[in-house]
Structure formats: C-alpha cells, structure tokens
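subagent[fold] <- orchestrator: predict structure for attached chain, return tokens only, no commentary.
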Amino acid sequence: QVQLVESGGGLVQPGGSLRLSCTASGGIFSINAMGWYRRAPGKQRELVAAITSGGITTYADSVKGRFTISRDNAKNTVYLQMNSLRPEDTAVYYCNARFSNGEIYWGRGTQVTVSL
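subagent[fold] -> orchestrator:
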C-alpha cells in the first residue's frame, strides 16, 4: 500500500522560511513525478511546484523565486524549500506522486501558517 507522509509544516512569521518533506513508501512502480499542492481557506487546490524524475521543475507564478522544489529519487522523497513566506502562502500543503503505472497518490497534508 502506497503512503505519502509529509512533514515540516508549522507557524512562521512573514519573511520566514520553512522546509517541507514528503516520502513515498510501499510502491512497486517507479515514481515519474512528485509535487506539492496547496489549498487555502475558501479556495481551490492549486499546484505549487512539481518535479520529474529527471529534475524538470514547474512552479506557480506566485512562488517563483521564493520556493524551490527538489527530489531525492533514491529515497522517494521530495522537498519544498519555502523562503520569504507571505500571509497568502497560508494553506494546507499536500504532497502528490505520480507513478509509472499511471496511479496518483496524495499525502494527508501539512498546515503552513504565515502570521505575526
């Protein structure tokens, strides 16, 4: 059974930094892409950043230059370094993994709150 476990969320002041981690376990197929999505209160879920197994990255315009996604393929782990955080980055952040057999799995989410 595939599981994605996120960690690293929390409360941070504006301008601060957080690093999210997500590790996938239990799969027998390789992971093609991993990514981070977020859902803010009253809003739809949106893509924050994604990375392929080859290291190609995609970012939402709102986080470009502030967030960096990286990946350790050997550990099936994806990271999201978040710098210069803003109150509008407050959301539940979800990890996502797309396997080579086409299946997609989600983590349970980790809360990120940016506030004084």
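orchestrator: received. Logging for downstream: The chain has a mean pLDDT of 95. The chain is about 0% helix and 55% strand.
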